[in-house]
Structure prediction request, 98 residues.
Amino acid sequence: MKGGDIHPGSEPGNERIIGWRSRRGMLELDLLLVPFARLAYPKLGGAAQAAYRRLLAEEDQDLYRWLIRKENAGDLQAIVERILAHHEERAANASPSH
Prediction:
């Protein structure tokens, strides 16, 4: 379903579906996407939520290459950067201070 929404006609704000679709079965993706869907997605504006839903329609191999910054995600690059920034922020907040 490349380039489309996760389910045509689905309600954009259905966070349960977004959370479920964020679980990819690939640990590297799950560690980035599941917390983003749970914590950041509900706070995004409509355009960013739509971009995230479009991202979820892409193939896992493409997502992986984009999220490790091996390839540019084109029109989805902004949401990829938000996902990575969210992950980096969470990691920094979880690190003990020295």
Summary: Helices lie at 15-22, 27-40, 46-56, 60-67, 77-94. Residues 15-94 form a domain with the DNA polymerase; domain 1 fold (CATH 1.10.150.250).
